[in-house]
Description:
By secondary structure, this protein is an alpha+beta fold. The chain contains 13 helices and 8 strands. It has a single domain (3-298), classed as Beta-lactamase, CATH 3.40.710.10. It has helices spanning 3-13, 65-77, 98-102, 113-127, 130-142, 151-159, 162-173, 181-192, 198-204, 206-209, 223-236, 242-248, 285-298; strands spanning 39-44, 49-53, 59-60, 148-149, 194-196, 253-255, 260-265, 269-274. The chain is globular. The chain starts with a helix and ends in a 5-residue tail after the last helix.
Amino acid sequence: MDHARVLAQVHDLVKDHIGRGRVADYIPALSRVDPGRFGLALATCDGEVHGVGDWRTPFSVQSVSKVFTLALVLARDGDTIWRRVGREPSGNPFNSLVQLEYENGIPRNPFVNAGALVVTDRLLTLTGDSSGELRSFLREASGNPAVDVDTEVAASEEAHSHRNAALAHFMAGYGNIDNPVQDLLHHYVRQCSLTMNCADLALAAGFLARHGLLADGSRLISRSEAKRINAVMLTCGTYDEAGEFAYRVGLPGKSGVGGGILAVIPGRCTLCVWSPGLDAKGNSVAGVAALDAFTSLTGWSVF
Length: 303
Ligand code: DON
C-alpha cells in the first residue's frame, strides 16, 4: 500500500471536521491548544513510520497513557489486576462516580478514570515510581528520549483533580487502593501529562500490533495479554462512545482528552491521530472521522 497517499487522502476527507467540537477545558492548561491542529501517523509492525499534517507536534497524551500502564502492570504482575478492576464497558462518562458505589468500589474497566487509578496504584506498588517507569518505557519504545511530562499541564491538572481525588478516596474506602491517595494522584496526573507526538505514540504501541513483542523482538506481554488489551480497547477505550467507535472504525482504540486516539490493526500497524476538538463524550471529532475514513478506504479493520 502507498501509505503516504492513503494518509493524504484521509487528511483531505476530514478537512471539514478539523476544528469542530470543543477543546477540553476542565484542565485549564489544555484549553490553550489550537483546535485547528490535525496529525495522523501510521507505524508498521517493522517500524516504518508515515505521517500527515501535525504528526510531529507534541500533545498531551492524557487517557491514551492508560493503555501503557495496563500493559506494564500485566507485564509485571500477570492477571492479578483483574481482581480489582472489571472489563465491561461502563456506558458512563470517563469520570463518573455513580457506578462505583453500586459495584462496591470495583471500577468497570481499566480505561475509565477509576479503573486507571487502580492500575496506576498497582504500578506504583510494584515499582515505587509509576510515572517514572511509564516515561522510561515510552522513551524507549518510541525511540524519542525527549518524551517528558508537561509540568504546566500536570500542575493545572493536579490543582483541578477533585473528581479523581473523590474516585480514589471512595475506592480506598473499599480497600481497593493501596497507596496514599495524594501519592497516587501525583503519579496519575504526571502520567496523563506526558507529551508525545503521533509518531511517538504509534511507535510506542507497536507491541499491541506485534502480539506482545517490542520492536527489538523481545517480549513485553504474552500474545494472549496483547489480545486482551486490544479487546478491552475495542469495548471500553472510548468510554460511552465505544459502541459508536466500534461501528464506525472497527478497530481497538484509546482516546484522550488531549485529542489523541491510538488505534491498533493487529499484525499490520498502529495508528495515532490527534486533533483537539472533542465531541460530547470526550473523543476527538476529526480523530474519529479520520480513523473511520482510514478503515473505509483501506478495508483494514478487525472485521
Ligand atoms: O483524569 C482525567 O480526567 C484526565 N487526566 C484524563 C481523562 C481523559 O483523557 C479521558 N479521555 N477521553
